[in-house]
Amino acid sequence: MEIAKVDLNGVEPHGAGWDAARAAVTASVEAHGGVVVVAHDALGPDLLRPLFGRAIPELFALPLDAKKRTASAEGNYKGYFTKSGGMDMESLGFVGAANADSVREFAGLLWPEGGNPELCETITSFGKKMAKLVETVETLLLEGLGVRGESIGAHLGMVGHSTFRVFRYGAPPDRESSVSMGPPHCDYSMATAIVQHEVEGLEVRAGDGRWHAVPPEPGTFAFLAGEQLRVVTNGRVPACLHRVRTPSNRERFSVLFGTRQNDGTDVRALDDLVDAEHPLQFNPLRHEEYSKWRYSEKGGLKFEDPLKAYCGVDKDVAMA
Ligand SMILES: O=C(O)CCC(=O)C(=O)O
Ligand SMILES: [Fe+2]
Q: Which InterPro entries does the UniProt entry name for this protein (predicted)?
């Protein structure tokens, strides 16, 4: 089965097109951990032009010192980073993408004198639209898996962190492999939505083990299930394995909108998805503790499936 492409334009809860979208989203995310969403209305040129044509170039054009002011001790989740290992790439981001105050705070670090109101408006608008779209996809998926409406509402109420992150990848250093970001990985998010601009790169490993390139079509984004969603769905949904490879060997820009559960809350399987036929797969986990362990040499980096090694009920795990 291919990774589905689902058009959510004008699709409202339980209105026209909802049932078909639910079936397509559920089948694709259960099989591959991902689905491509068409959302021309929300991600139209009136948003994408100021985002990729103005806000993102302005962010990357800042002096390194300014960009570094957003760096954070919290690892890659917040702030500025560049990757070593021969990859020419840099990324800037912050938590609170759908919240005007958090966006202003981020811009205030970069432009201490007066912020950047236009950029803030663009990012806030993008954040709010993506938050709604990602919630819609999760609702479709959880409904499709048989979760009751009130449990879906309670789940969405706990997913408060939304990350905004922009990436600039230079031309791939190795023109044969064309790898822009390695290695293949799953995100520890609840879900990650990726919007690509003009240049290809995102590849998703499908349930059959083959790699599928997600084309950078305007008005679309890729919804990728993260490890938190794997826990919440009691393993019914795999975390989506993905990588970035740019065979055209061009510079590439992308924007990521990632969600995760609030700090201080247990990420646990939804009751509706645990029964005799589907025994519990993962013990509850705390994001703050898991994310520290996951990227440590003595911890998660040793394992092929760090999530399972950390909180799997069945601890039979392979080393990386
Ligand atoms: O740039 C992209 O398309 C993907 C980035 C990514 O996978 C990540 O930052 O986790
Ligand atoms: Fe990723």
A: IPNS-like_FE2OG_OXY (IPR044861), IPNS-like_sf (IPR027443), Iron_ascorbate_oxido_reductase (IPR050231), Oxoglu/Fe-dep_dioxygenase_dom (IPR005123)
Q: How many CA atoms lie within 13 A of 278 on its CB side?
A: 17
The secondary structure of 158-224 as a DSSP string is H--EEEEEEEEE-S-SSTTT-EEEEEEE--SSSEEEEEEESS--EEEE-TTS-EEE----TTEEEEE
- The reply to whether omega before 183 is within 30° of 0 (cis) is yes
In this predicted structure, which of 64-78, 209-223, 272-286, 306-320 has the lowest mean pLDDT?
A: 64-78
Using left for φ > 0, alpha for ψ between -120 and 50, and beta otherwise, residue 269 falls in: beta
Spatial CA neighbour of 127 closest among 168, 165, 78, 75: 165
User: Does the beta carbon of 92 lie inside 6 Å of ligand 1?
Assistant: no
Could you tell me which of 89, 33, 127 has the C-alpha nearest to residue 244? 89
The residue-averaged pLDDT of 33-44 equals 97
pLDDT at 314: 86
Partnered with residue 149 across adjacent β-strands are none
pLDDT, tens only, 299-316: 989 999 999 999 999 877
Taking residues 26-54, report their average pLDDT. 98
Going from the Cα of 244 to the center of ligand 1, the distance in angstroms, rounded, reads 7
Q: Which DSSP letter does residue 147 get?
A: -
Pocket test for ligand 1, best of 83, 189, 202 (most atoms within 8 A of CB): 202
Q: Partners of 92 in the beta sheet?
A: 80, 166
With a 6 A CB cut-off, is 200 part of the ligand 1 pocket? no
**Maximal CA-CA distance, the chain:** 60
Q: How confident is the model at residue 183 (pLDDT cuts 50, 70, 90)?
A: confident
Query: Which pTM value belongs to this model?
Result: 0.96
Which pLDDT belongs to residue 78? 66
Residue 201 alpha carbon, nearest atom of ligand 1: 3
